[in-house]
Amino acid sequence: MQIELLNDIEAAFGKVSVTPPINGVYPDFFFRIPSGALDDVYARIGVIRASDAPVLVLAVDTLGFGVAEISALEDVIRNATGIPPTRVLITGSHSHSAPILCPIDLFGGFSPYFDGLCDRVGELAKDLLSRMEPATLSFGKSSCDFNVNRRWITPEGNCVSGPNPDGVVDKSVPTLACQRADGSLAGVFFSYCCHPTILLGPEVSGDYPGQAQLALEARHRESVALYLPGMFGNVRPNLSDGDGRFRKGTPIDAMRCGSMLADAVDDALKRCQPISVDAIRTRRLQRPLPLDKPPSHQILDEIAAQAIKSAQVSDEEKVGRSAYYAGNQLAMRQWVQQVRLEQAEHRVPTAVDYTFSRWDIGDVCWITFSGEFFLEYGLYAQSLLGADRTFTLGYTQGCQTYVPTAQALTEGGYEPNAYKRWRQSAPFAPSVEETVKAVIRELASDEQAEQ
Questions:
Q1: pLDDT of residue 316
Q2: Angstrom distance (rounded) from CA 231 to CA 377
Q3: Which residues make Cβ contacts (< 8 Å) with residue 136, sequence separation at least 6?
Q4: Are 427 and 398 in contact (CB under 8 A)?
Q5: Other beta carbons within 10 Å of 406
Q6: How wide is the angle at C-alpha 98 spanned by C-alphas 44 and 245, nearest 5°?
């Protein structure tokens, strides 16, 4: 069935497996070398051209990319296609059973595996640019109901990890579809706000986002489905043990949630309405987010002492611990060393840069941040730009530490204190919330984005 092409738009979509090993090397994982692959992981690319200016979206089944790794990938894409970084979005699904390609704990992205991934991405991007075809874009929206706020405040006032049904959550599934001239689905971008933490090994997996993408591609032959992560720093799958805590997920849970999300995307596809796109406008900002003072020497000494004590246990006790636990304790000692050296050399950082982007695709808007932002920031962006047609995405152009709200910094808990794992020298200052909101207002202003 032929469809009306509203504008002079061309598009191409493709994917390539990045299931390890590549170049004979495994990347880092939160578990030992995988025992296999529950499902293959992929790098997926969508290229869209309007007014002779293409944009490219790279979505990879990975925990995330570091800022330096993003820069390397942007160079690869520019060399392969000529598309500048400001018209490229690179995101990782944040699956905790996928390769780690960012600096967290003792891990990092650069390796022969990453080199091979870059080669495959460059080849795919170049190939797609050579086989663009006429297309049309449409937007739809539905909902999915397996996520929940994960910060529960106990009666004693402590913040712990547990299902909080009264906490902020976003169940929407915004969907941008691209159809060929014959009406078939070429590609679909979809987003959902939920940490992919159902699985933690021992097999490689894209978790529920990977399962959803594979399910959609099986249902819609010759199409590519790209999952775009929402701002889910404080949201995760609602897998409860019935006693107010989360239980460990299973492969069946991942497949079930992935199928539910794929069903929601299919529902959105049925509701999709064509959008008119004369140009795709992009805008990128880099802004410093304020840091508080680093921990005192006393606290640093206590952290180091605890890490040393944890390492000096009996061989019998070590057997019962994961390799990740031992690595995390060593990472804490190295972090203490880093902070003490910065203080000794009088170069204590007062801010850290984050990347913020806005893409306007017709009347559909994408707002993207380069870290683990709390959902409240995404909802704030939607309140300014309109929730109906706004994607709010995290983990894009970099996977950096959690950016909590001012209230969450006061409440404490895991996320506000996870900055150490990301090698950040200090927690965020309470003023970080207003700083981020000011950047969102800047992106939401009437000033025209770059074309």
A1: 67
A2: 8
A3: 3, 4, 5, 6, 7, 9, 178, 179, 181, 274
A4: no
A5: 15
A6: 125
> What are 50's two structure tokens?
């309007």
Q: Which residues of 431-449 are buried (b: 16+ CB within 10 A; e: fewer)?
A: ebbebbbebbeebbeeeeb
**pLDDT value of residue 321:** 65
138, 272 Cβ separation under 8 angstroms: yes
How far apart CA 405 and CA 430 sit, in angstroms, is 8
Query: Which pLDDT score is estimated for 52?
Result: 77
The two three-digit tokens of residue 131, written as one number: 């086989």
Q: 335: Cβ–Cβ under 8 A, 6 or more apart, which residues?
A: 303, 420, 423
pLDDT digits 0-9 by tens, 227-259? 999 999 999 999 998 888 999 999 999 999 999
pTM above 0.85, yes or no: yes
Q: Quote the pLDDT of residue 310.
A: 83
293: its two tokens: 């003072």
- Say how far residue 211 (Cα) sits from the centre of its chain: 16
Query: Beta strand pairing status for 42-50 and 9-17?
Result: antiparallel
3-state secondary structure of 139: strand
Q: Which residues pair with 365 in a beta bridge?
A: 360, 390
Question: What's the chain's Rg over C-alpha atoms?
Answer: 22
Residues 123, 290: Cα–Cα separation, whole Å: 39
pLDDT per position as a tens digit, 33-71: 898 999 999 999 999 999 878 999 999 999 999 999 999
For residue 350, the 8-state DSSP code is: S
As a whole number of angstroms, the distance between CA 61 and CA 196 comes to 11
Q: Are 178 and 211 in contact (CB under 8 A)?
A: no
The answer to whether residues 92 and 55 touch, using CB atoms and an 8 Å cutoff, is: no
- With CA atoms as reference, report the closest residue to 282 among 437, 127, 447, 121: 447
Q: Six-digit token pair at 39?
A: 């499902």
Helix H segments across 202-320?
Answer: 207-219, 251-271, 297-311, 315-319
Name the residue among 237, 284, 236 with its Cα closest to residue 402: 236
Give every residue of the chain whose pLDDT is below 50, as ranges. 451
H helix runs in 50-195, sequence order: 67-81, 112-129
- 249 φψ region: left (φ > 0), alpha (ψ -120 to 50), beta (else): beta
